[in-house]
Amino acid sequence: MVNTEIVIIGGGLAGLTAGIHLSQNGISVTIVEKNEYPKHKVCGEYISNEVKPYLESLGIPIQNAHPTSITQLEFATLYGTSLHQKLPLGGFGISRYTLDYILYQKAIESGCNIIKSTVETCIFEEDQFIVTTQNQEKYLAKIVLGAFGKRANLDYYFHRSFIQKQSPWLAVKNHYNGDFPEDVVGLYHFKGGYCGVSKVENNQINICYITTYKDFKRYKNIADFQKAVLFKNQKLKQILENSSPIFDKPLTISQISFEKKEPVSDHVLMIGDTAGLIHPLCGNGMAMAIHSAKIASELSIDFLQNKKSRATLEQIYTETWNTNFKARLRMGRNLSAILEQPMLTLIVLQVIVFFPFIIKQIIKRTHGTPIS
Fold first, then answer.
1. pLDDT tens digits for 288-304?
2. Which class is domain 2-165+256-366?
3. Residues near 45 by Cβ (< 8 Å), separated by ≥ 6?
4. Are strands 68-76 and 184-190 parallel, antiparallel or unpaired?
5. Is the pLDDT of residue 225 over 90?
6. If you placed Cys at 47, which of 30, 39, 201, 286 could pair as Cys (CB 3.0 to 4.6 Å)?
């Protein structure tokens, strides 16, 4: 049995950020992650500047990767109408391959113990956790943070309600060589979904789209789907036809759920996508994951310093999570529901194009203020 103050299940964006924050405050942290670093992931790879001061306060050398600086939004519908909008805070483009590896290196430097494995069981008894990994290693911890992503076997283990429902959404991503403005994030509508396009480091273009499985399964493969569906948006067709893919095969992920999730399950504080997934159309999932790691880390430190009881910790975390993210997630679910109805999508998108202030309101309601 290995004693550690905190176990973090999952070493992605939220898990690594929390590990760095906690370790830098003298907390013993063990992160259990099933994948090797670095690794590409299906992700929009745009981060709002609202979390930039916080990342800088942790000494995370994001600028060493030379991320792009994104200040503009281009929004184009399937029907040829489009608009450009300045992003109030702006953001930066960086691949998960690079960002997660930077965070991994910083976590090691900060003192985190990172083990490659998966968690099989997480038992809470006598006010502490016993976490058992696939290779039967056991960790005794005072706090467990769940950062195991959008959907995992542990969701079944914790009997989380959302995991019982089938989700219609899947996502596809590839990196490309081609010509696209460095300061723009593009959102391009097609029937049944939308595609995000933005530059990341090394002059590469990240193209990531989300669609329903119902629409996708009508075609034999990804290439056929893109030509038959994505190419109907002329701007998106131009981008794809003038770009060459870098990956041998696109990355895909299915069963993406935007259903409500509990911020706390079986006394485990959930962070990042494990606590709630915002529709990518809102463009703020990565910033929310980082922000949630900050909230959980600060409250965990207070708990370990005997400033809060466990009941108070869980209550405040849930309340703080809801205050910061509940309305944003609701907006994301509403957008998701609209995209599943073609005629309603047409009406809403045309209204947005003719009344640009609506897109400003969507940005405002799905983004926060700078945190440090």
1. 999 999 999 999 999 99
2. alpha beta
3. 93, 94, 95, 96, 198, 200, 206, 208, 286
4. parallel
5. yes
6. 286
Instruction: Please return the burial class of 88, using the count of CB atoms within 10 Å of its CB with bins 0-12, 13-18 and 19+.
Output: middle
Give CA–CA dist 274/14, Å, rounded: 9
- β-partners of residue 173 are 208, 251
Give the DSSP H or E segment for 368.
none
Output phi, psi for 199, to 5 deg: -80, 145
Pairing of strands 128-133, 119-125: antiparallel
Tokens describing residue 196? 């995000």
CA-nearest of 356, 357, 296, 352 to 324 is 296
User: Under a CB-based contact definition with an 8 Å cutoff, are residues 12 and 100 in contact?
Assistant: yes
Question: 111-140 pLDDT, tens per residue?
Answer: 999 999 999 999 999 999 999 999 999 999
**Phi and psi at residue 2, to the nearest 5°:** -100, 130
Residue 154 CA to its chain's centroid (Å)? 18
Alpha helices in the chain (DSSP H): 13-23, 52-57, 96-110, 153-157, 213-216, 222-228, 234-241, 285-304, 310-321, 327-339, 342-354, 357-366
Q: 223 in the Ramachandran plot: left (φ > 0), alpha (ψ -120 to 50) or beta?
A: alpha
Residue of 86, 47, 87, 69 lying closest to 291 (CA atoms): 47
